[in-house]
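S1.2 Input.
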Amino acid sequence: MKIILFSRQGVVHTAGDLHQMFDAIARFGFDYAVNEEFAPQIERLTGISIDAAHRYGRPMGPQPAESVLVCYGGDGTLLDGIHRLGGAEIPVIGINSGHLGFLTSVPRNGCIGDVFELIAAGKLECQPRSMLEVTGDFGDGISTRYAVNEVVIQRQGAGMISVETYVNDQMVATYHGDGLIVSTPTGSTAYSLSVGGPVVAPQCACLVLSPVAPHNLTMRPVVIPSSSDVRLKVHARHAEISIATDNETCPIPEGAEFKVRLASRRFFLAVPHNISFYDTLRKKMMWGVDIRS
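S1.3 Output.
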């Protein structure tokens, strides 16, 4: 079994947490690898030397079939870790040192060693999750990108933009406003939720179109089948425009077109058997908590 550790700059690491990780790796006899951005922080905080054989970069390169990606940070860190896999079907588990953490289900306080014990005992549930494939005018030589949570067309600056939206070549609407989000069920608890989109269970075969600050107040999120082909054409008279696929954003020209559909690649979210999606909702959203007292 190989543990692939991933974290990124900006995450607050503590020597105690890192020692817990490496003590558990040694105790269970795991092989390991650390991303090249994380390794210097481990060495600085713990004094543990990470040699070249135990480092990986971009791309990650081939990994053994029995590997688990352990991401230390928030949901943004986990998203970056999934993209680093490049489509490899390696289970991913997150240790939450961030804030809300819908995807990073394991709290860091006192539980880091437990993660590796669950991995060693094979007591993790691997949930297949859908991703989006986006093709179009990115303007940087890359014609296809992938997203775990969402694809967002949005304005940069004060001007309004318009997003012509088609589903299977049938026009849905032209969204005038700040932009449009196309999200997966996994992404329904991310940006889409903050603009009024529905919470969607991850097993649902659907996508969500959520307008961002629409100029027409009757416009509401629309749930469409996951088999849909979505086509977006962007217009702006004054504002600059960007497209974001999860954490990665790039500027796009006026008139740019994109096609969004369910990707053939998936990722596998590893969670403890005793934590369900609904458990996470109740805990993170504080559903059922009596705030009157």
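S1.4 Remarks. The mean pLDDT is 92.
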